[in-house]
Amino acid sequence: MYPMKRLTAYVSGNVQRVGYRARVIKIANGMGLKGFVENLNDGRVRIIAEGEEEKLKLFEEIIDIRNTLIKVSSIEKKHSEAIGDFGGFYKLVETGETDSRLDEGIGVLKDMKEVLILILNKQEETISEIKETNKNLGSKMDLMLEKQDDTISEIKDTNANLSSKMDLMLEKQDDTISEIRDTNANLGSKMDLMHEKQDETIFEIRDMNSSLNDKMEKVLDKSDIIELKGDVSEMKSALRAKGII
């Protein structure tokens, strides 16, 4: 069995008439400690607790409470040997304390009511702000949707204009292709005419060459005659010289 020890603690802070002693009693009974807790005239709370040393160390940490109502600022602690003269853990009260605690409790409840009213008012303001924000957001969303519709309409118009321009480009392209085909056809016809003209020119050149050849032959024939005439003239002169003729 573990040795029993005694803790004497003086707790300072906002610890009277806020339910601090009730919390201490609940904690002590839950840990199996014995002793008491009481309010002092100087505003502090005195706690005397006996039990196992390890449990008392944990108890010291737990009674350092800080919440909405209870605010422990410091704990003055003293350790000694347990006496063993407590049958349980309880609260020491002075005469008339119950009535004062009731008045204090009513005051605390009033304060809590005022705080709750403030919280509810703040909550209503927040809800109103949220509704107004949602309303503004809804208007902005409607505006965004209208703008989106306008943008979609503009895109459709742009696509329609682009489609029309593409159709015109395709038509122009077809016209250009047709013109190129016509030009090629005309060029083909001209090439055929050029070929025909070239053939005619070749035939004419051939005819001219043939005529030239004939003329050359005729020229050659005429030279022979002239030479022959020369020879005859020489023969006549020779015969005259000899007196033959």
Verbal overview:
- There is one protein chain.
- 9% of the residues are buried.
- Strands 4-1-3-2-5 form a five-stranded mixed sheet.
- The chain has helices at residues 20-31, 53-62, 97-241, and strands at residues 4-14, 34-39, 45-52, 71-81, 89-92.
- The protein is α+β, with helices and mostly antiparallel strands.
- It is built from three helices and five strands; from the N terminus they run βαββαββα.
- The longest helix is centred in the last third of the chain and has 145 residues, at 97-241.
- Strand 2 and strand 3 (45-52) form a beta hairpin.
- It has a domain at 4-92: Alpha-Beta Plaits, CATH 3.30.70.100.
- The model has no long low-confidence stretch (mean pLDDT 79).
